[in-house]
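Students often ask what a holo structure prediction actually looks like on paper. The answer is less mysterious than it sounds. You provide the chain, you provide the ligand, and the output is a string of discrete structure tokens encoding the 3D arrangement of the protein together with 2-phosphoglycolic acid.
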Amino acid sequence: MLEIKKYTEFFVANWKMNGSINFIDNFLSKLVLNDINLENTCNIICPPSPYIQYVSKRLEGFYIGGQDCSIFEDGAYTGDVSASMLTDMNCNFCIVGHSERRKNFYETNEDVLNKASNCLQHGINPIICIGETLEQKKKNLTKEILSKQILESIPKNSNDNNSIIAYEPVWAIGTGLTPKLEEISEIHHFIKNEISGFKKFKVIYGGSVKSSNSRDILKLENVDGILIGGASLDVEDLNNILLCQ
Ligand code: PGA
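The corresponding structure tokens follow.
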């Protein structure tokens, strides 16, 4: 299992259900790695499961992550991918509890907790996603929702050296909208300082991050990295984001 504490910044590219062999070949031929900070910076690409091995064999300077894993260990669960299979495929990380899974596949905090536990058990660092919807934000429920998600989705054996928290406001994902910089700072401060037990956890931000805003977000106190969806499919944009390091 990688030691999270040794990195100061995390860049997570979440391709979601996008890509093809042609796309990957073209992408990897153009991806430029800024190797200056490789020691402190942790770059992660999360391709769709069928492409994990193809990408991992052709990529240097990046870790590979799954986008999800099963709540089960193994068995008759057609379509599921287990944490141990991800380990076999050289994944060091796995996103769990992404809002698209919570919403479209009705995943509960308990499911997310089980997924994160399976990751830990198989030597994978879970990237545990939390975030409020616009409706919850409007009702001033953001902090309440985030506390509940954190307390119910993060396993007891998660710690600042084996797990990462990703704050992704649901309304900011894929919409081009982002919270104000002060709001991002405030929420990251809240997660680290106002929920007991998470002070030293790395907390990364996701939701409409692109090269034009990544630098300002990364500069914020308490922001330890970014999770990039749509913009991570545009190799030029991703290069620019990575060069900001
Ligand atoms: P986005 O997605 O960058 O396209 O908003 C982020 C995510 O869903 O992880």
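The two ends are 24 Å apart (CA to CA).
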